[in-house]
Amino acid sequence: MKKLSARRRHPLAALVVLLFALAATGGLYAAFAPADKAKADEAQASLAIDEGKKLYAVGCASCHGTGGQGTSDGPSLVGVGAAAVDFQVSTGRMPAQQNGAQAPKKPKVYTAAETEQLAAYVASLGAGGPETPNKSQYSLNGKEDAANGGQLFRSNCAQCHNFSGKGGALSNGKYAPPLDGVSPKHIYEAMQTGPQNMPSFPDTVMPEKEKRDIIAYLNKVNSDDTESPGGFQLGGLGPVAEGLFAWVFGLGALVAITIWVAARTTKAKKS
Q1: How confident is the model at residue 101, as a pLDDT?
Q2: Which of 2, 74, 208, 266 stands 20 to 30 A from 188 (CA)?
Q3: Three-state DSSP string of 47-110
Q4: pTM higher than 0.90 for the full model?
Q5: For all residues of the chain together, what is the average pLDDT?
């Protein structure tokens, strides 16, 4: 007992007890906290899926089927991923007002929270599709190469969206929408998922950096302070519009000048 009492009176006894208590507390936290957090995240995800299923049954099942298998009025949603749902619903394209060649952009019906719930439910129907991108994936940080983005855009996108993203007509009533004013997130999601008639460009084909370069290019060419090195850009609609302008007004002016010169020459000969 005297030895134990002496140890208790040792100057380092309190420090040893404190260190032991901290170690025990840390060990207990490491053992139990992660599991509790994982369970909480799992419960939250399950709740989002359940709420999304209710929203889906009301607004989507009539066209896409009760289990997302698709019908004659809408394609299958199994395996499309959360990003596709976020794009279609956030831009108001879905739910569609009516069947047609293409669903147009319109005011959105669901809130951001409801959109996340719908995306969670559709993603649970089958794996494989891209997840909704986070800000670090699509936000510009100033290190983007807009010139490279322009090259990539002209190689992969300009044939439908025009060289400066003004949009264009396709076959059978379909069209490539204009890209000015579209948020970086939705441009990124469109490249990931290939909505409507657009091909998809997953990260394995076009990495995140290249997608941000394209976004930077579109921001640059559609900004109000961008100058056109060729003069008046005629709305930036490209060579077809510029060629039409040249034929109608340029050739018309040449014809008018030719007639005027011929008239003056004839009048001079008569006099």
Answers
A1: 87
A2: 74
A3: HHHHHHHHHHHHHCHHHHCCCCCCECCECCCCCCCHHHHHHHHHCCCCCCCCCCCCCCCCCCCC
A4: no
A5: 84
